[in-house]
Specification:
Layout (H helix, E strand, L loop, with lengths): L1 E7 L4 E6 L9 E7 L13 E9 L2 E9 L9 E2 L8 E5 L2 E7 L4 E7 L12 E8 L2 E10 L2 E5 L7 E10 L2 E10 L7 E2 L22 E4 L4 E7 L4 E6 L3 E6 L4 E5 L6 E2 L13 E4 L5 E6 L2 E6 L5 E5 L6 E6 L6 E5 L20 E3 L9 E3 L6 E7 L2 E6 L3 E6 L5 E6 L4 E6 L5 E6 L4 E5 L2 E6 L6 E7 L2 E6 L3 E6 L1 H4 L3
Amino acid sequence: MGDVVAVDEKAERVTISHDDIPGLMGAMTMGFSVRSPQVLAAARPGTRVRFGLEQEGNDLIVTRIVPLGSPEGRPGIHDHTPHHGGVVAMVGMLHLEAVAAPEGRLRVYLTDVWRRPLPLTGVTGTVTLNLADGRHQLPLVVRDDALEAGGPPLAGREVAAHVQLTREGQPIEMHFVLPVDTGAAGAAEVPLDGCVPPAPRPGPADRLPRCVLTFHQPVTAMAVEPAASTVLVAVVDGGVTAWRMPRAEFVLGFAPPPPIAVPGGAPPHPDAANAVAVSPDGREAVVAFENRLVVHATDSGRVQRELPALRGVVRTLGWSPDGKGILATVFYDAAAHLLAADDVGSEVGPIALFDLVSGGPPRLLVESRRAVENLAFAGDHLVSVGGDGVVRAWDVATGAVIGRAQAPGALYRLAVAPGGHLVASAGLDRGIRLFDGSVVVETLAWHEAAVWGLAWVGPLLVSGDAQGRVALWDLGDRLARP
């Protein structure tokens, strides 16, 4: 027995938060394939069910589902997965799921924070489609359990759509890129206008970004897949999206993490990735959602697997150079953790260097008692930033600090440019400082909020802030050392 968490009719899968199954597995939330589409006829999210399982090789197949309780469900499931084959976004404490069909039909489902359907009486709205011949605004009308619009047939794999609703006098709106065929991967919170040049500012002729992507929610993390020139951007309630550089073209959105049952009484909250890292071969990315670690395929955005959860919220992630391990640091934890790999950094300041070939105890690099927020190798040196606002360069062979520079506020992000000599750092003071060694060679002073994402793609630096703005900086002149 268990509670239906999500139903994916296109993939013929159902996610169930099930009780203990004696002799097979303990209680957990798990996705199952179903024997046939008819099995899903009685499955609605939030419904208490009895279900049958058969094992085929390594797979468990659901053969029947019998409802036991109310289809209205009950709270306690944290779920951003699609229930109707579309794309899900959270707006405040409500969920929108938008679905597009090739014949031009669009449907929008409105549910509460626990994914229970909301009454649609009095709800009005429109959906605006970005098509080859311009923008088309279509009215949404209530039909069955959704709001529906009919438009021209949709060509291509996906369509950009802007949904605007009014419910009880309150506006609800969201940008989507919606899959039109089953092979596409859509996303929410996608800037429909693309990367736009910033307005000039009065005053000194400081360097400006080439262009800016504007999300409606804060950027929380960023990572780069160098071979594909792709930057992964994590946005509150918008998940993780991939953008091809240098033109900042939308590629795809990552699938949301599998649903989980939250502890009783835990308040609902926005969904945000707090760290992202890409494997050395570029095929996978690991995304941290609080203490959860979810591995995605970078070419499709699909969830590949979920690693064992850590005991605290993940601070940063990295992937070992041999591709066999995940590097993770955790808030309020002075220990290093190994997830088929190793970890450096701690809450109280020292950096631990582990030699995974010869073994033996780690060497500690100690100079600050404040938390190490970010680490990166730059050639044969290690660069770190932390809550004391100091950028430090370490000689890995000796453990000595060979350079340091002070910033006016706490630093949380750094990125090392190709070639290893130029380092960008950022944090709460909104400025991005470019270091050549221990010397600040330039400060990029454009962001108006804390910078939470930095990534280099060749000579291009990409930065994201707490106002949801992602800026692209052309810095080829800085990389061309005399």
